[in-house]
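Customer escalation, tier 2.

The customer says the design service returned an amino acid string that "doesn't look like it belongs to this structure." They asked us to rerun it and document both sides in this ticket. The original structure tokens are below, unchanged.
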């Protein structure tokens, strides 16, 4: 192995240990918080999903909850211990299996966090809508944990050479899917919500429109309408130069390579959340129809609301395909070491060029000439 390759692999091991340490810090914090709740403390705990006390800022009466659910207490502690074992194995036995386990841990944390909820709730909270900040903080912490485990998986996976510097053009199919991912939140989300904010009952009944104006302020409605399509514009970075190299106007980073995980992880998390939300929402929709809680006439009156389920699903799929194209385009190339032959020579052949010409010239002459 060349000195350059050995140096790069050594730095990769150091990065793996750094990611592992960050994962352990995250797990220790989460387990300590759960043990605090088990002991009777309620700092940071929320009961808004189990009570009707209508006080999201105070955790919906979390201080008065006596019996802690298993999923929030010992169940979460057990998962934390299991993930700690995953971290130890990832550092001790680096390779494909360790990386797979770390990726699964990252996916678990991100699914539990359900970041799509954050995409809508945080803008609404900043616009003045009463929100459960304890729940939002817990979800943000889980997202951070998922990112840390994804970084650990990337650092402990099969060793590859460094990323090829410069801009690597993405395939045409990646660009097409990126344009779909940008257009869907504009056409399927911003347009109908903008009309509803303006008082136009587009695809919904008058009663539903009145409910929207009663529950949402104008500022909250505008935030919910504009944030998703504006965030969707970031998808263009997966197919443009500024998604691989920082633009020249960025101080201190101009022209430098954008870390792959900085683009792949957020985009992959959002894509996974969108698809999950679309599938689960569609399952609830079918269940309501089957149980008779929802009639087809109601679906016809509020067809725009039902259509958003397909918008989320299509948005997630298109973003996921675009992210895959970006990841394949920018993946590290296998480094060619100086002490390894570039190709296997046929048995009995000579690597020396024949007299009177180079090897390439000799191969171009037909045996019959």
């Amino acid at each position: 192995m060349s000195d350059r390759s050995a140096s790069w692999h050594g730095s990769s091991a150091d990065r793996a240990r750094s990611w592992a340490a960050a994962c352990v810090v995250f797990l220790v914090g989460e387990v300590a918080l759960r043990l605090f709740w088990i002991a009777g403390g309620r700092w940071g705990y929320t009961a808004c999903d189990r009570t009707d006390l209508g006080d999201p800022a105070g955790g919906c009466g979390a201080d008065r909850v006596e019996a802690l659910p298993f999923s929030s207490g010992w169940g979460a502690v057990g998962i934390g211990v299991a993930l700690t074992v995953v971290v130890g194995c990832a550092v001790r036995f680096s390779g494909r299996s360790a990386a797979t386990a770390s990726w699964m841990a990252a996916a678990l944390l991100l699914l539990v966090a359900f970041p799509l909820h954050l995409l809508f709730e945080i803008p609404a909270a900043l616009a003045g809508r009463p929100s459960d900040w304890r729940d939002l903080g817990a979800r943000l912490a889980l997202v951070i944990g998922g990112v840390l485990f994804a970084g650990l998986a990337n650092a402990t996976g099969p060793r590859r050479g460094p990323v090829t510097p410069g801009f690597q053009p993405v395939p045409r199919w990646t660009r097409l899917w990126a344009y779909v991912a940008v257009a869907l939140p504009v056409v399927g989300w911003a347009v109908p919500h903008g009309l509803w904010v303006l008082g136009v009952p587009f695809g919904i009944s008058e009663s539903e429109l009145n409910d929207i104006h009663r529950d949402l302020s104008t500022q909250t409605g505008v935030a919910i309408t504009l944030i998703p399509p504006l965030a969707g514009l970031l998808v263009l970075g997966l197919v443009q130069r500024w998604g691989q190299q920082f633009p020249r106007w960025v101080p201190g980073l101009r022209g430098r390579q954008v870390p792959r995980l900085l683009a792949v992880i957020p985009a992959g998390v959002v894509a996974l959340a969108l698809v999950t939300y679309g599938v689960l929402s569609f399952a609830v929709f079918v269940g309501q129809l089957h149980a008779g809680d929802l009639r087809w006439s109601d679906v016809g009156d509020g067809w725009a609301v039902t259509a958003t389920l397909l918008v989320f699903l299509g948005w997630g799929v298109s973003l996921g395909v675009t992210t895959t194209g970006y990841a394949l385009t920018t993946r590290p190339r296998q480094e060619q070491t100086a002490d390894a032959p570039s190709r296997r020579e046929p048995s009995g052949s000579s690597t020396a060029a024949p007299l009177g010409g180079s090897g390439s010239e000799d191969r171009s002459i037909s045996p019959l000439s």
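Tier 2 assessment: The sequence is consistent with the input. DSSP finds twelve helices and no strands in the chain. The mean pLDDT is 77. Sent an explanation to the customer and offered a walkthrough call.
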